[in-house]
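Posting for a labmate who doesn't have an account.
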Amino acid sequence: MIGKLKGLVDTIGAGEMILDVGGVGYLVQCGARTLRNLNPGESAQLHIETILRQDMLKLYGFSSEEERAWFMRLQDIQGVGPKAAFAVLDTLSPMELMNAAALEDKAAIARAQGVGPRIAARIAGELKDKPPPMGRALGGVLQTSPEAASNTSSSALSVNAEAVSALVNLGLTPMDAQRAVAGAMRTLGEGASLDDLIRTALKDMGK
């Protein structure tokens, strides 16, 4: 199975692109969030999810491992297929999706094209009590590209996890800690520091 591809962007189409890897053109399905950061003729590295079925082989590409992991997590939910999963991730970053689920913000999820209120409610309900997907980890460390490592969403995910861990150490349940941090991040924005997140979360909880 293919897990990652690195090559030159050959062609970009509607919801897909061709990545030239050593003279072989791989047709990769991508969401708008990934495609808008690609340009023909430039090098690109994509995290790949390979879907092999009896009559179909498709490659789904993402600019970060977090997005790929959330793409698969979303499809664990009844009624959510690749198209809906892409739509959600085009509307919400992994961090925003995690926070929306923690706060049971169905309206934020329903902004995704083609995702109705019922599916949005199901997504929020099923994700709110679950930890974020681990993704493909080697040696306990999530593997991401250098580009993803400097991505705001990836950095925010790390700060979010540290803030949740700190609140759990103070005696909160993981679910309450995630909900408190999600509310604080919504107030402060994804660029908030760890100290500000913890301080705001505790303040909002009356601690």
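Reply:
Got it, the structure tokens are right above this. Residues 152-169 form the longest helix (18 residues).
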